[in-house]
Here is the input.
Amino acid sequence: MLSKIKEALEHGLFLHMLETKLKRFGIRLTIFYLVTEGDFASPPEWPDQYADYEPFILSREDMETIAPDHPWDDLAGLRSRHDRGHICVGLRHGDQIAACTWVDLEQCNHAPLPFKMSDNEAYLYDAFTLPSFRGKGLAPYMREQCYEQLRAMSRDKFYSVSSYLNKPSVRFKQKLNARFEELFVSVATKTGKLHTVKLKSY
Here is the structure.
């Protein structure tokens, strides 16, 4: 057992191993960053081909288009988000939806760390690119276009959450010049109790 722990530490996999072990006992451990976005050091320069993509706000009817490929929710769940006032900002290429991200103007809806948004704030979550448009590097451009849509609504401070172990999500935020503000650990027991503790501020 000690040799396995040593190997996991050497390869940066200890936390992943710990998560897996705890799940067997009905305990869910998550470590995540609270992130602020939208503060580019200089205006980003995007490839010319992105000029073919138009930012827009998805309608309730558009949920039928994205639901089959959405990795975290089904059609009913996506419609429920829309009905609760959440905004889905996307990119359109011709008559096709290429990518989108969700916005909650009321609160950070990440269950381990809920907090209310001020009038100038927004919580961004669930960014994804539809399968036929993956591999084009659209996600950062789509997110930047989301900032512009929100600034037009007088929202200029943007929060998000990234799992400590989700390296693609961390790299995505780094491309956005995002700031990793705080690191938290959250433990959910099989009885439904949720405990969240701040590990570090940056």
User: Anything to note?
Assistant: The two ends are 34 Å apart (CA to CA).
